[in-house]
Amino acid sequence: MDKKKILITGGTGFIGKEVLKLLSRNNFKILCISRRTQKKRKNITWIKSNLNINHLNLSKIQKFRPFALIHLSWEKIPDFSKEICEKNYKDNISFLKKIKKISSIKKIIITGSCFEYEDKNSKKKENDKVNLKDYFSSTKYKIFNDVKERFKNSSVKFAWFRIFYAYGPFQRKESLIPYLMHSLKNKKTIEIKTPYFENDFIFTEDIAKIIKKSLKINFKNGIYNLGSGKSSKITEIIQIIEKLSKNKFIIKKNLNKKKNVFYADMSKTVKMFKFKKFTKLKIGIKKTLLKI
Q1: Rounded to two decimals, what is the model's pTM?
Q2: Which of 13, 223, 226, 287 could pair with 161 as two cysteines, CB 3.0-4.6 Å apart?
Q3: What is the rounded CA–CA span in Å between residue 180 and residue 242?
Q4: Cα gap 289→260, rounded to integer Å
Q5: Closest CA to 82 of 131, 142, 136
Q6: How far apart are CA 99 and CA 106, in angstroms?
Q7: How many CB atoms lie within 10 A of CB 145?
Q8: Tens digit of pLDDT for each residue in 95-115?
């Protein structure tokens, strides 16, 4: 069995691009499912398909004999409406049913979200309560439970990575750092609705490195937080960008002084995947700005 053969969904996305880059550079052989036609790249073969893979594409996957699945796909982000969440749920369940037929797969890595947590004002452990009132959060949790049940009596290992506030190159323009940079370049006034909120920002290179480690380590099944383990203020990010760009933002004053601290307890993830060296916020932002 070739443990360097990996099946990936969502490889053209914000996080997926970083995962593809890292794995292809480390000579993994990748079969990537994409809804659009993609250019050929070293160590990467593309299948043009959505998650409702047909018999022909399933045969291609079986012939490829992947050792692991890295499942990053989620359609129409940031639309988290009931309709879109229900479609994502049906597509994911259909896809995972078919994946179970592929006997070569021994590991499944799936990305969840920190928004699955009910209380978003504290340090979060993996066994904390989840939010079942929100469409996106409840849908993600339903998929997690389906995977847990579907593979409970099999030899397949699965990790559910709850990603906190990811940032890095190729992030959609509405996200915080691209929004700030666009505003700065165009001398537009910025308005931060929650300037005193502190969130856990994790650089996409770190996410990719931990996912890569999960392909090699014999981990225990279950949920793992994927954050930096630290909280950072929005104002801190603004100050870093100002120093790096040597420019000043035009900031609309906001009287909202509500405070909130939301970050990951990373002890379980660090212990299991032996990853401690997280990218400092200033360095990660600097790398991100170079690609915007």
Answers
A1: 0.94
A2: 226
A3: 10
A4: 26
A5: 136
A6: 11
A7: 10
A8: 999 999 999 999 999 999 999
